[in-house]
Amino acid sequence: MEYTLTIIKPHAVRDNKAIAMLSMIAEAGFRIAAMKMIRLSSFRAGEFYAEHAGKPFCEQLVKMMSSGPIIVAILSKDHAVRDLRSLVGNTDPEKADPGTMRKIFGNSIRENAIHASDGVEKALKECSFFFSEMERFSF
Ligand code: CMP
To answer: Is 136 among the domain residues?
Structure first.
C-alpha cells in the first residue's frame, strides 16, 4: 500500500467540479485516507511550492493556489504515486491524453485542476505538510 497527496485546485472547487473529480479518483481504485477543505495563505502556498521559487510562473501560481478553498486529500492504493500521476495526465491540459483528469477538468497549464505528488518521498513530505497523524487513517 502506498500513499500520495492530491489537491483539487481553487478554480475547480469554485466551478463545482470536486465531486466529479473525487468520483473519478474513487473509480480508479484509490481510497481516501484523509481529506479536508481549506484555504491556503499565500505564505503557505509559497512554502508548498518552494521548489518553484524564482520561476517565471511562481508568483501567479501562488496567487491562484491561495485564491479560494482547495480540497486536499491523502489517497492510498498500490503504486498510488505512479497511478495518480497517470490518471491526472500532463501538466498542460492541452498536451494531456484524452480521458485524463487535467484534459477533462483543466483550463490551462496554471489552472490545471489537480495536483499529484511526483515521487514517493515527495508524497510523504506533502502528506505531512497538510495532515497531522490524528487526521489520517490507514485505509
Ligand atoms: P502542479 O502539479 O500543482 O505543480 C506545479 C504547478 O505549477 C503546476 O501543477 C501548474 O499549476 C503550475 N505550472 C507548472 N508549469 C507552469 C507554467 N509553465 N506556467 C504556468 N503554471 C505552471
So the answer is: no
